[in-house]
Design goal:
five-stranded parallel beta sheet
């Protein structure tokens, strides 16, 4: 049997991003659990703001096609999103909007969302840990008919959540991370 493939997508391009740091920790933990992990930067897939007229005129940008195919090559996808104004950042929403427009031959539009498993995590400096962004992202992905697992990780006070080895140090955070990753692996294995 082939290895379980998980794609980790941090939803921030900012230097020193709390979410990029969390995505690195999650990717490392997934690898230790035996998954074949790819972690990308959305900065490597620059996309214009979604515009239906632009799509009609120029088609779907190649970066959206490439990203959709990368998602399609994995059994599970883990989005790690910041929270901007109680929701997801434009980078994450715009990426999903473009990917939802990609339709390869012999597929229905949006098939990439319901042929695999999605998991959600967020890191924030506040006490809510990005829970409002997670709720918004869950709603967006559900509208795309994505299979989003119930467990999620909302890492509050994220700038103080790590030990000197960049591992989560609070038992509740470690437990929430383990539950998220176990559920992601279990559900993704069913998609193999």
């Amino acid at each position: 049997m082939s290895a379980l493939k998980i794609l980790v997508i941090p939803g921030s391009l900012r230097t020193g991003s709390l979410n990029a740091k969390l995505s690195a920790v999650l990717a490392q933990e997934l690898a230790q659990l035996g998954a074949d992990v790819s972690r990308i930067s959305l900065g490597d897939f620059p996309l214009p703001i979604y515009d239906g007229d632009l799509q009609v005129k120029s088609g779907v940008p190649q970066h959206a096609v490439n990203l959709k195919r990368m998602i399609g090559a994995h059994h599970g996808v883990l989005f790690v999103t910041p929270e901007y104004n109680s929701s997801v950042p434009a980078l994450v929403k715009n990426t999903i909007d473009w990917i939802s427009r990609v339709q390869d031959p012999h597929e229905v539009r949006g098939q990439v969302f319901y042929d695999r498993v999605f998991a959600l995590a967020a890191a924030s400096g506040n006490r809510l840990g990005g829970t409002r962004a997670l709720a918004a992202l869950r709603l967006i992905l559900s509208a795309c008919r994505a299979n989003v697992i119930p467990n999620q990780l909302a890492l509050s006070h994220a700038e103080q959540a790590y030990d000197d080895m960049d591992r989560l140090k609070h038992p509740a955070d470690v437990e929430a991370m383990a539950a998220l990753l176990r559920q992601l692996i279990d559900h993704s294995q069913r998609m193999m």
